[in-house]
Amino acid sequence: MWPPLRVTFICRYTRELTGVVRSILMGLYELGCKAQEINVAGRPDLLDNPMGHRGGNGPVAVRLRRIEAELAAFGPDVIIFCAGGLTFCPKDMAQVKARYPVVGITLSDPDVFPTVSRYAGTFTMHTTNSPLALSWYRSEGIHNTVLLPFAVDSRFFVPWPVDARYRADVAVIGHAWPERLPIAERLVEEFTTRLYGNNWPWASSGPVHGDDWFRAAWSARCLVNFPRTRAGHINVKVGLFEATATGRLVCTEFFEEMGLYFAYGHEVVGYSGADDLVAKLRYYLSHPEEAERVARAGQLRCGTDHTWARRLSVLFTRLDGILRNEGSSFPVSQGFPLSRQTRT
User: Fold this and answer.
1) What is the distance between the alpha carbons of residues 195 and 169, in angstroms, rounded to a whole number?
2) How many whole angstroms separate alpha carbon 276 and alpha carbon 282?
3) Which residues pair with 147 in a beta bridge?
4) The domains spanning 6-153+307-335 and 156-305 adopt the same CATH topology
5) Using one digit for the tens of pLDDT, what is the confidence trace for 176-197?
6) What is the share, in percent, of the chain residues with pLDDT greater than 70?
7) Which long-range contacts (CB under 8 A, 24 or more apart) does 91-99 make?
8) 62 Cβ contact list (under 8 Å, min separation 6)
9) pTM of structure
10) CB-based contacts of 5: which residues, under 8 Å, 6+ apart?
C-alpha cells in the first residue's frame, strides 16, 4: 500500500456542503489523503465553456495556465476532476498527463453520456456512477471507464436529535418532477409528510442543505427515494445511500440494480406503485420494531460497504494497476509525488 496520497481535487459546488461533490472530498480526507481543493464555483475565470454546458455535461475546460503554479507548488500524486463536465482541453490534458495521472469522475450518468463520452477517453481513468452507462462506454470503445457507485462520508452516520420543526412520518428530500407527483400526492394525503425541494405543488419547506439536511432526514421516521433520473433512466442515486446512512427506514422502487447494494425487505423496503408504497408505509409505521430492524440493517450495510473512503481506496488501487501497465505507479516507499518521478 502506498503512503497517503496528495490529491488535487478540481470541482464545483457552492452551498451544497452535504452534496455529493463535497462528500467525495470528505472521503479523501477520511482515507488519509492530503487534498488540494480547487473549487471553480468561485473562480469562473478558470473555465472555458463556449457551448454553455451545464448539469454534468461537458466538456467544461479548466485553463491549465491559470492553475499551473498551484499544481507545481502542491505536487499532486493524482488530479481528480469531480463532476460538472470538468476536464482539460486536449492539448492541456496531454501536457498534464506527462506529469500526473488524471481521473475524471462523472456523477450524472446515464443522462450525460452523450456529451461526456466525447472526451472520457482522454483521462488516465474515468468513472461512471451507472452500470448501464458503463456498458455504453464499452460499446463506444472507451475502456478506461470503471464503475464508481455512489456512497457517503462519515458525517451522515452521526446521530441528530429529532427537531420538532422537521418532524414527520414520511419525508421526501428531492425536487418535484412530473413522474414523482402522483406518489407524492398520495403520501401527503395519507401521512404526515414533509417535502423538501423545489416546485412541489403542496406545502414544501424548500430545498435543505448543510445542517438543515441532517435535521430533516433524522427527524423523519421514513424516507422515500425516487430512483428515476431526469431523462427517465432508473438508477441507484446518491440519496439512497445518504438516507440509509441515517438509520431511517428507506423505501424505494423495485429494480434490478438495487441488488448490488442493498437487500429488499432486509435493508430497504421496495415498492411497486403508490398503492403498494402506502400499504407498506402503513405496516411499518404501525410496527416500529420491524421498521427499526430494517433501518438498522440498511445503516450497517451502508457503513460497511458504501463509504467514500472505501470506494476511493478501490479506485486508487485500480488506478495504480493502470499506471503499472504504463511503466509507473503510485509512490510506494519514499512518498515522492509522481510528478517528481520519471515516467515511461
Assistant:
1) 11
2) 10
3) 128
4) yes
5) 999 999 999 999 999 999 999 9
6) 94
7) 92/61, 92/62, 92/63, 92/64, 93/122, 93/123, 95/64, 96/64, 96/71, 97/124, 98/343, 99/338, 99/339, 99/343
8) 10, 38, 40, 46, 47, 48, 81, 86, 87, 88, 92
9) 0.93
10) 33, 34, 77, 78, 316, 330
Edge-to-edge order in the sheet of strand 47-48: 47-48, 60-62, 86-87
Residue 159 predicted with pLDDT over 60: yes
Find the largest Cα–Cα distance for the chain. 65
Tell me the one-letter amino acid at 120: A
Which class in CATH covers the domain with range 156-305? alpha beta
**Sequence letter at residue 343:** R
Instruction: For the chain, give every domain's residue range.
Output: 6-153+307-335, 156-305
Helical (H) or strand (E) element with 283? helix 273-286
318: Cβ–Cβ under 8 A, 6 or more apart, which residues? 125, 146
Output the DSSP codes for 8-26: EEEE--SS-TTSHHHHHHH
- Rounded CA-CA distance 272/253 in Å is 6
Q: Which three cell numbers stand for residue 260?
A: 448490488
Enter the CATH code of domain 6-153+307-335.
Answer: 3.40.50.2000
